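Protein of interest.
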Amino acid sequence: MTDVFTPAERAAVMRAVKARDTKPELAVRRLVRALRTGYRLHAKDLPGRPDVVFRRARRAIFVHGCFWHGHDCARGARAPATNAAYWRAKIDRNRARDADALTALTAAGWSVHVVWECALRDPAAASAALAAFLSD
């Protein structure tokens, strides 16, 4: 299957993919705010730049998109038909980078929670999971 976009159009589409303030991340921030806890965003001094950070409690939350981070749900298991080798390698690199960040944070004494995009389809369950993580 060939790409429906020219290389310049494809580059523009890929540049538009956001790394911050994505819909799943905003949803997690709404849930965390409902728990009335203060937090910081995208701590540049921590491994992996966690999306939500609670410094005093030494807790960090990563919000992962299922496709981009290779989740084992239906959306994460979907592989592009074009340039499949590139995408497989990219997602494998993302998974390795995520694992390294989790290991480094845990070794530094941080508690880490990963929220997957698909888990946000049930806001009540996601909120309960976040509340449990933050109350430990």
